[in-house]
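Researcher: Re-running this chain for the archive, since the previous output was lost when a drive failed. Same request as before.
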Amino acid sequence: MVNALDHILLTGDNTKDDRWIISLLLSRPFWVVGALLLVLPFSFYRTLDELKKASSLALVFVFLLVGMIIAYANDVADPCAGYDDSDETTCRGEIESYTNFALTVSRVPIFVFAFTCQQNIFPIVNEIELLSQRRVNNVICCSIGFALVTFAIVALEGYSTYGSFVRGDILLNYPENKQVTFLRICIAFMLALHYPLQLDPSRRCITSLVKVIIKWWTRHQQSTEDEIEMEQDQDEVIHHDKKGSKEESIYYEMTQSPVKEEQVDGDKEDKLFYGITSVFLLLSFMLAMAVDDLGIVLALVGATGSTLVSYVLPGLIYIKIYPHNDTSKILAYIQLLLGIVIIPLALYFIVTNREVNH
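Model: Regenerated structure tokens:
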């Protein structure tokens, strides 16, 4: 948004403007706050189905970006406009068939992160209409296939356009014009609209863990004598209530108590839902304010969380629950081993390459 508005507001001879409103609009923290306000209502949706309109709009922005990348790669538009009189040596780098091992390994986590979507399968299965294994398989194949085709087009066409000069955020390579400025704004909204899709499965996982911890804590805080005394007191109230008959006491137990208990559980669920969502939003906001390099964030997340979700946990779970020692179980061991190797290796090369670049 800062780059886009810089092109819109500071054009021609007016390359500097000290007015406070211009300074505010060209401030990155201002747009981080704006993004937070934009995602707030979507972040408190409880199902993926409620997010389908926002997701559809985000996909439109993806199609626009892919179309622009294809246009510049095939010389429909000039990718070197504004680069020292369009000298291609200043905007296009060499196209290499391969690179060194360390650099390759440091980029692997970004690819892992790009295809990490397994965490969404549980709510998707729960919300599919006319649920069947065939429908689930179709959703998996279509989503992964669509992502593969989209990423392949962006990667190959983008690299063929700028070669070794291509940047992690490819929009930074393109010339400053109205089309690129418009797409920068579209991408900003796309990223914001995708945030709730990442928040939803994360919140579900954390909620499940918190519930387990609460149950464990409650169970170990209460002694056996306290539980027996509580049961005795409840029986005494139900069967010896002086204010009503035995039948009235039983009726009260059957009708009032469950409703009250259900209401209390509902209140706890709501507090947990809103509390975890608020913490996620706060931590995300703090991270966005502190870090401005998206590439390093994607690499670190890919090397840790995404590798766990994509390699370590699926392989480990399959080994634990699958009883037969056949080819699929061998593949599960290989998958688990890959994850165990990728995490420390990728982290090492990410840190070392970053230190070399600086």
